[in-house]
Amino acid sequence: MNSIDTLLKSSDFHESAVGHVQGTAPYVDDMPLIEGTLHGVVVLSSRAAGALSHVDWVWAQSQEGVSGVVTGSDIPGSSKLATYVADENIFAESEIAYHGQVLGLVVAKRREVAARVANSVPMQIDAKAPTLDARQACAQSSFVLPSVHLERGALDAGWQESVYQLSGKLEVGGQEHFYLEGQVAYAIAQADGRWEIYSSTQHPGEVQHWVAHALDIPMHQVRVICRRMGGGFGGKETQAGHLAVWAALAANKFKVPVKVRLDRKDDMLVTGKRHPFSHEWHVGFDADGRVKAFESLQMAHCGHSADLSGPVADRAIFHTDNAYWLPAVKVTSHRCKMNTQSHTAFRGFGGPQGVILIETVMGDVARCLKKDALDVRLQNLYGIQERNITPYGMEIEDNVLEALITQLATDCQYRVRREEIKQWNAQSESLKKGLALTPVKFGISFTATQFNQAGALVSVFTDGSVLVNHGGTEMGQGLHTKVCLVVARTLGISEQRVRISASDTDKVANASATAASSGTDMNGRAAEYAALRIKKNIADCLAKNDGCFADEVTFIDDSVVTPRHKRSFEEAVQFAYKQRVQLWSDGFYATPKINYDPKTLTGRPFYYFSYGAACSEVAIDLLTGEYKLLRTDILHDVGRSIHPEIDIGQIEGGFLQGVGWLTTEELVWDQDGKLLTQGASTYKIPTAADVPEELTVSLWMEENREANVGGSKAVGEPPFMLGISVFEALRDAVGSVRDSTTPVELDAPATPERVLKAVTRVREVD
Length: 766
Description:
- The protein is α+β, with helices and mostly antiparallel strands.
- Helices cover 30% and strands 25% of the residues.
- The protein contains 20 helices and 29 strands.
- The strands form 7 sheets. It has an 8-stranded mixed beta sheet, sandwiched between helices. The protein has a 5-stranded mixed beta sheet with strand order 7-15-14-13-8.
- β9 (184-189) and β10 form a beta hairpin.
- α11 (351-369) packs across α12 (373-380) and α16 (519-546) packs across α17 (569-578).
- The chain is globular.
- The termini are far apart.
């Protein structure tokens, strides 16, 4: 038996593992093209702001090999994308909003021809100075959405109770998604005015909506299909829709299939990133480090349009407390309009930008009091029966923070290592070490309540094989694998019997995006409900035949057992089929308990919380600012894991992606608004070399206290914020340079240059 056969007969492997290893798993760009297919390449603006006075489309069309161009005049429907704010043009019109804004397409039989011409189209833009600074945008009242305010508790009393007060600023950079598979769409016209769109998207339903809106046709005439993505991380939640619209418009004009794919440079220029944030804060606290009052001004860098900036900035507010009770708090959130790409969803969806703020505050409070930062964090944790209401009014009912953090501190010998590092730093002049243990509390659910629903279809065939379809999408995170496992375990059969089909708007209508870490929670539950209906149908049939009750029928080990007979699963299925029993079913799930008022930012926006903590140790070179991550220990709450190996992989990957956001991944725009970091040569994502030699991941396996599928908890986004432990460890190392109570000023990403400047500032403190 060869290794592939062994893998196929093993249990619980990723449903696309063989294809991934062999390179045979097809993505949109791998699809064989229909004869006559054309390729569209985007024409990008060469300025970040100004009046667009001319684009020489006549020149473009006249070039050898070019089939034609697509512009705003070729849009049958609305010229606006069908976003919830409707503030973004499909193609730029009279005003340019950012460098790299799409003006139209050049279409040709050969992509290289279209690309050469698209990159050379003459244009005239009467440039003006772009708005690139969030504080400038605030001064100009330049916002994509109205500002939001949240206040809870008696602030005046909190300030009076505060023995100490601190203020500070924190700049938090954005992050490029850098998915391995870039943005791509393939549009094919069908008979009767129907369309098939193959899209690398986290939200097929939204792509369907956007394409129908642009073509001015009903949604039922548009079918969107996605078998898998080569990564998404939020970057394909809304922004995949742009390419689908462009491809559909071109296919509609030229009456042939059209494929649009962005190369890495254009992808980085055109698409949005994680929102950078500019923070200003003021905190009051007592001699033990307990926070009494906290004020936060949050300026989200949204780019030129709203996209998902509203809910992203809202979630940043919701996670500004992170793990801590804030008795009196005031948050003001500005959604700043700037001449950059329209920033969008990214793993954590604003949560990380809120969590890093309060964690830096906790670190500075500890430094002010000359206390261990872990002790300050423990002092401020949410309680169980009291001190357990969030600033937005949600009661925390599943708090495991103190027990989890204490367990991790014990397991990783935090106290012992803290003393060892203190002694090491006292003897080392050019190298300093830092240590930090930071927690995360992350709410699970879409804050837009209507998205907390999912559907699935399960079909059992007469040979005992099972096909599953659901509204979620697979981007490598293992969603399809987990859903198949849920169905297999529900029916008592081996997972090898269960296969998944592509995500398809013709199968499950109105499906929500695969986002908010709720893909398994919702789609897994919907598939489970569908499988339970089939299971009941078979059980009722066999019980009637065997003279027993349906609840006496058991499904186990690929068999169906009644008090009188034991049948193989396929025998039971075939018997039920002959009795004309329905062997397929749909399932629908709506997340319970949640309610949320977006006008007041109050209610219960989350079904439950996921918790975790990480302890990281670093060393920095005081002469160069270079540093190394030496060790990280993680303890993360996943509930009763459906698939521990996938969960551990998600924790490791999320953690390292968070480390990249806060250390190496720096987005740079020049003074004219041009993004300078346009590829792997200038934008540095973490590599295997950045993984600490000592990395330990343990699972906190307490069952979810809410009735979630299999007792599990979401694991997609929460681990991302564990990377903040590295940022805080770097600040701890910088602070060890001098015995001072002054806050450590270090912005993110903490590049070696910024670390060196932070060291210099600490040394210069009076």
